[in-house]
Amino acid sequence: MSEGSLCYILSSRFHNGLLEDCIVIALKQALLGLFDLHNSGLIHKCFSAGNIYVNFNQRSSSNVEIRLGFAATIYGSELESPLFVSHGRELGIDSTVSIPPRNHGGLSLNKWAAAPEVFYSKCVEDLSLVQSPLFLYDDACTVHSDICLVGVAALELAYGNLRISSRKEFEAMIKRSRRLPDKLEDLLEEINVEEGKGEMKKAVVYVNDKLKYVKGKRRFSKEFEELVLDCLSSKESTRPSVGDLL
User: Fold this and answer.
1) What is the total count of domains within the chain?
2) Of the candidates 48, 46, 49, which has an alpha carbon nearest to the alpha carbon of residue 10?
3) Which of 117, 121, 140, 186 is the most exposed place for a label (fewest CB within 10 A)?
4) Model confidence over 159-180: pLDDT tens digits?
């Protein structure tokens, strides 16, 4: 893919995220691929900005192709060329291509930001003992956990690459976000820096620096905010399906 992943594009060109219209277009095309995977009984497990690829193709009717990368090992090695999911072809876009993710930063975020039922799939009595993504188990992944990662990817695209390196940082941000119904900027801005120490404090300072840049320049619609919060719901049963999102 000529332009690489959206994670790479964010880190190299759009450090403070994309406009909402661009986010919606990118997510829609990636969700078309995810829709076909789920309908085929497959689970992506690593949906992120690092697995959404952009290609400029002058021969395409839209000039821009957006594809969702999916583990190449899923497909038979005897195939001479990658197998494409055909859902997006009606729009002149192949939504899913069997290529391995090239951005390891996005994969790392997936581990920290996995759905709670996946991250804590091997539960211990004291959850504070869980210090690493070693509790991420593939057999706990479901279509519902994929949807949770869609919400994380939306945050990535909205704010640029999220500098979150631990589960504690991620859960603090999501917990705060659920309390406030308005803009994502507002719900993140109200995190009290004095409450944070160590890594959490650094993360909050970083978020506030982001907010200073974007405040007054970009507003997210209520529909977008609700989509993100619905996808990040801690309850599997309340998360929307891919069909609902489309």
Assistant:
1) 1
2) 49
3) 186
4) 877 766 677 777 877 776 654 3
